[in-house]
User: What shape does this take?
Amino acid sequence: MSFYSMNRVMSVWALACVLTVTGCRGPTDGYQGERGQVSGTVTLDGKPLAKGCQVIFLSKTGGYTASGVVNDSGAYSLSYVHGLSLPAIEYRVQLTAPVQPDSTETVDPSAMGAKLALKRKGGAASDSPFPVKYGSAEKSGLEFKVAAGSNTADFKLESDKK
Assistant: This one.
């Protein structure tokens, strides 16, 4: 066997080993369990939440995060990394005011940290289109357990002024 042929065989063998170790599944988040998709509506005092607000699911364990943007009717659909469905686990939920007025663009969850660092519309918390408590996953009181398959997560918020 010539050096060229031997080198080629070694290259093919090395590639096969790498594919075996890393798998051929494409991008993954390391989660091995069931997965689900989530959509729903968010209302405040019975009316659709302001267009462009973000709904953010933060897992209670594992560091998984997904987000969606509220449209005119208060509806949203979550997006997760690499186009995958969300791990079927428990999440805390928080909201953010629109980063840009009337934004309906879905936020890439992997870049969410940079988006959340941006100044909110109007600046002050008092200008928020919802009570301040909903802006914190720990204080919002909003939770949802994602199940395998399609999930509907509707949130009926109430203002502090009632």
About this structure: The beta strands are 35-44, 47-48, 54-59, 65-69, 75-77, 86-87, 90-96, 143-145, 149-152, 155-157. The chain is about 15% helix and 30% strand. Residues 3-22 form the longest helix (20 residues). The domain at 35-157 is CATH 2.60.40.10 (Immunoglobulin-like).
